[in-house]
From TrEMBL:
Swiss-Prot/TrEMBL keywords: Hydrolase, Thiamine pyrophosphate, Transferase
Database matches in CDD domains: TPP_PYR_POX_like
Protein's recorded name: 3D-(3,5/4)-trihydroxycyclohexane-1,2-dione acylhydrolase (Decyclizing)
Xref: NCBIfam families: myo_inos_iolD (TIGR04377)
Annotated source species: Rhodophyticola porphyridii
Domain Thiamine pyrophosphate enzyme central per the UniProt entry, residue ranges: 220-353
InterPro entries, sorted: DHS-like_NAD/FAD-binding_dom (IPR029035), Myo_inos_IolD (IPR030817), THDP-binding (IPR029061), Thiamin_PyroP_enz_cen_dom (IPR012000), Thiamin_PyroP_enz_TPP-bd_dom (IPR012001), TPP-bd_CS (IPR000399), TPP_enz (IPR045229), TPP_enzyme_TPP-bd (IPR011766)
Gene: iolD
Thiamine pyrophosphate enzyme TPP-binding domain ranges (all copies): 437-572
Length: 620
């Protein structure tokens, strides 16, 4: 007779996760690093009971907000290059609903995140229960169904036996390079506590491997033929290069064939800033150097990049007759905009493509021109980040930190003006040290994602720092994980750069001919008297060391103190809302502008925007 363990559904889920391992750099470690949790009536009696008994194996970090828990899990997964993940558990109702934005962020960024969320009673005997949404014509529909749009795997557990299939399927989704993304399990409150005789084999230790798909020989041959005939080739290195562990292969491929490399936002830190073939970041928040060669390239090899509009300049960054080759584990990404697809692992694909290319090298004049463009861009950045007789700016703060940080310190930024400024001005000191969240461009990720990254970093590099750049807008949206970092002794260095509101959107508002309205606090008609937040006092009230500085020189001294300290340190500096933006390096970006307006400035901006559309590449 088969041997079984009689466990509740909640206990079985946790025991299963406890026994799932992955080999990283020759060492077996749990693929699930633990979780983030806020308990409520929908998860504390059963899932809380199961987690209590495994606190060493699967540590549970108490969150302050479910959305920020999801962001922290995303930051953790990014640091571990998608090879490890954290779960988030939330109660039924608003607790779970708060995870929707974080799930969307993980989905857009192709990140593993497991959500174990409370659900209404499957028996419906006590309906309607606290926090239940009632749909009169469909009693099966609830808040948890909203996650179907923002996850890669979704299931509602209505019988204990279901998890024997559902858990492995969720895990397989999260570890699949082509389909990686968040997984959601709805756990009805009664079903969580129901017991079942689970087969012992279900809980046996299993060591997973990340699948590497070899590209099709025919697709490699087609790509090699196109690239081998190129007079002006270029490589776009995306985030998938790091997720595949193909950084060394990218470098070797570029060097062997003398092909210039540019980086997407997610692909920042694929190559050191000092590498002669690193021509800079591309796109709307890119560099003149990368965008200059992109306009002239006749063959473009995209590696591990989903070709987002900020990378492609809304598909105006390239010559319309340029040939695109997309090497990507995901078929969906490999075929975008009539690319020659090479569906497969980046590491294996680069090796195969390199072999097929033989001794091909790009023309010397082309590579030299690209390198010269990078020299000019470096000179611009050096002036842009330098302090002097001008208003405080994001770029100056970035320059100060870049000069003083350790090469292995991790930099985190997200929505607003800072992603553009970090992408354009940061000089990469070591591989994989930059996390600019721009897949979902999500305000609030910065501090929470930094906390998750720091938890991961403390496992491998405890003597290095996680440095967070955030604006005042994102800080006000989500700052409670300053408290989380203090509680859990996971030190962060947080720079709060205060420009008095949503300055980058005000900039876009002005650039499209509109007057400043409702973005900067000073321009809000419902604010009779603008009020300045004391960010230093606020951060200090959550247990952080905090100080306010007046200029980049003072910032440098404060940053040295933060590096020397042993707990979360918040540094506040005002920056100018109008002056000091990085003025060069921008590709065109499509935004919707009014075709009809009473404002002559708005009409002129619309006409100017539409006049530049002629370069836009057509395709699906």
């Amino acid at each position: 007779m088969p041997q079984t363990h009689r466990l509740t559904v909640a206990q079985a889920i946790i025991r299963y996760l406890q026994n799932q391992f992955i080999e990283i750099d020759g060492v077996e470690t749990r693929v699930c690093g633990g979780g983030f949790g806020i308990f409520g009536h929908g998860n504390v009696p059963c899932l809380g009971e199961a987690l209590y008994n495994v606190q060493e194996e699967l540590p549970l970090y108490r969150g302050q907000n479910e959305q920020s828990m999801g962001f922290a899990a995303a930051g953790y997964a990014k640091y571990h290059l998608r090879r490890r993940f954290m779960f988030c558990t939330a109660s039924a109702g608003p607790g779970t609903a708060n995870l929707l934005t974080a799930a969307a962020l993980a989905h857009a960024n192709r990140l593993p995140l497991l959500m174990l969320c409370g659900d209404t009673f499957i028996t419906r005997l006590p309906d309607p229960v606290l926090q239940q949404l009632e749909h009169f014509g469909n009693p099966t529909l609830g808040v948890n169904d909203a996650f179907k749009a923002v996850v890669r795997y979704w299931d509602r557990i209505t019988h204990p036996a279901q998890i024997i299939q559902s858990l492995p399927a969720a895990l397989a989704t999260m570890l699949d390079p082509a389909d990686c993304g968040p997984a959601f399990l709805g756990l009805p409150q009664d079903v969580q506590g129901w017991a079942y005789d689970y087969p012992v084999e279900f809980f046996q230790k299993k060591c997973h491997r990340i699948r590497r798909v070899s590209p099709d020989a025919g697709e490699v041959a087609d790509a090699a033929a196109a690239l081998g005939s190129a007079k002006r080739p270029m490589i776009i290195a995306g985030g998938g290069v790091q997720y595949s562990g193909a950084v060394a292969e990218l470098k070797a491929f570029a060097e062997a064939h003398r092909i210039p490399v540019v980086e997407s936002i997610a692909g920042r830190a694929n190559m050191l800033a000092s590498h002669e073939l690193n021509i800079g970041p591309i796109g709307v928040t890119g560099s003149d150097s990368a965008n200059t060669i992109a306009e002239q390239a006749d063959v473009i090899l995209s590696v591990g990049c989903r070709m987002q509009d900020f990378t492609t300049g809304s598909w105006t960054a390239f010559a319309r007759d340029a040939t695109l080759i997309s090497l990507n584990a995901a078929r969906h990404d490999a075929g975008k905009h009539m690319s020659l697809p090479v569906v497969g692992d980046a590491k294996l694909g680069l090796l195969a493509l390199g072999q097929a290319l033989g001794d091909y090298t790009a023309p010397v004049a082309w590579t030299d021109m690209a390198r010269d463009e990078r020299v000019k861009w470096d000179a611009y950045v050096a002036g842009n980040v330098a302090s002097g007789n001008r208003p405080n700016s994001y770029a100056q703060a970035i320059g100060v930190v870049n000069d003083l940080c350790d090469t292995r310190d991790r930099v985190v930024a997200a929505a607003g003006g800072l992603p553009a400024e970090v992408t354009a001005n940061w000089r990469t000191l070591d591989i994989g040290t930059v996390d600019v969240e721009f897949g979902f461009s999500c305000m609030g990720y910065e501090i929470a994602g930094g906390w998750g990254a720091r938890i991961a970093q403390a496992e491998k590099e405890p003597d290095r720092d996680t440095i967070v750049f955030t604006g005042d807008g994102s800080y006000l949206l989500m700052n409670s994980d300053i408290y989380s970092s203090v509680l859990t002794d996971r030190k962060l260095i947080i720079l709060v750069l205060d420009n008095g509101g949503f300055a980058v959107i005000n900039k876009l508002q002005n650039n499209t001919g509109n007057e400043s309205f409702n973005n900067l606090i000073a321009d809000c008609p419902t604010v009779p008297a603008p009020f300045a937040v004391d960010f230093e006092a606020h951060a200090a009230s959550m247990g952080a060391t905090a100080e306010t500085v007046a200029n980049p020189g003072e910032l440098a001294e404060a940053f040295k103190r933060a590096k020397a300290g042993d707990k979360t340190h918040v540094i506040v500096m005002k920056v100018d809302a109008y002056d000091g933006w990085t003025a060069q390096g921008h590709a065109w970006w499509e935004v919707g502008t009014p075709e009809v307006s009473e404002s002559a400035k708005v009409r002129a901006a619309h006409e100017a925007w539409e006049a530049t559309r002629s370069k836009q590449r057509k395709g699906v």
